[in-house]
Amino acid sequence: MNDNIYELLNSSSFNEEEFGNIETDLTDLEIKQLKNNFRKNNKVFNKKKFMYIAASLAIFITVGTFTVKPAFAQSFIESIPVIDSLYEKLGYYKEFKDFSSYVGLSQEKDGYKFTIDKLMADDENVMVAMRIYKPGLNTEKSKDGKSINDFMITPYLPNSFELFMSAHNNSKIIDDNTLLVVTTFETDPSKKPPKRFDLSIEIHNTLVNDVSVKFILPVSREKIIKETISKENVGKISLSASEQIIIDRIKISPLGTSIKYTLPKGISDPNDFSFYLYDDKGRIYKDRSSRSMDEQTYISDYFPNIEKDFKKLYIVAYKTNLVDIQNDLSKANKYSEEISKKYDLKTFQNFKLNDFGNINVNNIERISNNIKFYIELNDPRNLLKQNFPIWLQNKNDEFDNSISFDDISFYKNQNSANNNDYIVEFKNINESKEYLYGVYAPYCNTLVQGEPLEVNLK
Q1: From start to end of 193-296, where are the E strands?
Q2: Which of 51, 56, 109, 368 is the most buried (most CB within 10 A)?
């Protein structure tokens, strides 16, 4: 097999007649829909007069569903392990391998080559994985080792634009010429995507305004639906007699975990409210982001991805004085000097966090691209668990944002008899870099915390 998948795709062609050579267990209706989708994409692309390489037409290959006989399709299928290995470096291997659809769609413009490799979708997110290639694209890097080329991916047709309200990128440099980008589009909480639809996106380099390309991508979320746990009308969390938070839904899919909730009416600022989750295996999950169109009904996403080897999940809601502090920084909590310092990975220390409790770092283990902090967490009021207690940074940088949220885990040490022993783990870090660590000290106070809401998922 030729490992250069760019060369492979450039030298390939695909046309509608080759649908006759599909060996499949799809129904006749599904095959007809697939053909219609192909014609629709072909028609739109021609109408827009985009320039494409030979492999420009969409190939929508759902793994395990059907195979294509022509030599090109066989070569493309053979290159799938190479594509998988690239996305494994971004931490998406299992999800992309088991739940994604393969898309052989590329465009070239002004020396750039944009290749859409994979798609995944559940009822709240669509994830698009692509490679961006240009000679010398990544030779100049930012201070934290990222490519200075920043690509914005946005919906551009009304039917796509209205469905989504936010998006975020995760990128990794593969070599001097190739950038790997995974974009997650997040839906408006009031909307739910259909099982199959066309996603219209535009990609442009924010540093080079005239470099812009458009794609129309066939999306199917049917496979992930079968592997998704979704609970509706979960329950209520009471913070006070007048403040009740309604948990409308919890969703656990291969793309991630989220809760949909409704805040009390008449609240002064939703930023005072926050949540964390924990399961009956002792793993703790922190909210990555929240979104809302009406500042009443929200969707919050959590990291790291939740495993499904547990029976119960617990939702903890709390209200803080965060907004008050943002308006007046002098109201933030004050700590001793040792809390603000950074420490090398050979330093073990006990950190006292005022009346919150203390974090005792007992051991730090670094093996290859993995760092584990073994800590004793004395948290009498369950306030320190609201945030990940350890943060990591490159020795030469203020903050290393190359560490993905999905590569950070916080969980009980199952091998310890001490119920307060936890592990904070950082995965897929740069093996060649030296790191320092610090402890997270809450800078705002928790005004009220509700009782954990138990959700039985079995």
Answers
A1: 196-205, 208-220, 229-238, 244-253, 256-262, 273-279, 283-291
A2: 56
Are domains 5-225 and 229-330+446-456 of this chain identical in fold? Answer: yes
Cα separation of the two ends of the chain: 44
- The secondary structure of the chain in percent helix, strand, coil, rounded to multiples of 5, reads 20, 45, 35
5-225: CATH number: 2.60.40.1630
pLDDT given for residue 69 in this prediction? 34
Q: Which SS3 state, helix, strand or coil, does residue 271 take? A: helix
Does residue 5 have a pLDDT over 70?
no
Q: What average pLDDT does the structure give for the chain?
A: 77
Domain ranges of the chain: 5-225, 229-330+446-456, 333-439
Nearest CA among 265, 275, 266, 262 for reference residue 235? 262
Angle subtended at Cα 169 by Cα 167 and Cα 170, rounded to the nearest 5 degrees: 150
Place of tokens 């006989």: 69
Place of tokens 């746990």: 229
Nearest to 389 by CA among 435, 346, 421: 421
Q: Which two tokens stand for residue 426?
A: 């950082």
Contact yes or no for 206/192 (Cβ under 8 A): no
Question: Is the pLDDT at 63 greater than 80, yes or no?
Answer: no
CA distance 392 to 21: 53
Radius of gyration of the chain (CA): 24
DSSP labels, 173-212: E-SSSEEEEEEEEEE-TT----SEEEEEEEEEETTEEEEE
Query: CA–CA distance from 433 to each of 339, 430, 455 (Å)?
Result: 23, 6, 41
In this predicted structure, what is the pLDDT of residue 418?
95
Q: What is the pTM of this model?
A: 0.72
Indicate the CATH number for domain 229-330+446-456: 2.60.40.1640
Cα 255 from Cα 265, distance rounded (Å): 31
Tokens of 349: 């220390």
**Alpha-carbon dihedral of residues 317, 318, 323, 325, nearest 10 degrees?**
-140
Burial 364-394 (b: 16+ CB within 10 A, else e): beeeeeebbbbbbbebeeebbbbbbbbbbbb
pLDDT in tens, 251-294: 998 888 899 999 988 887 888 998 999 999 999 998 888 888 88
Q: What is the pLDDT of residues 217-259, one digit of tens each?
A: 888 888 888 888 889 999 999 998 889 999 999 999 888 889 9
Specify whether the CB–CB gap between 257 and 302 falls below 8 A.
yes
| Residue 282: HSE in the Cβ half-sphere, 13 Å Cα cutoff | 14
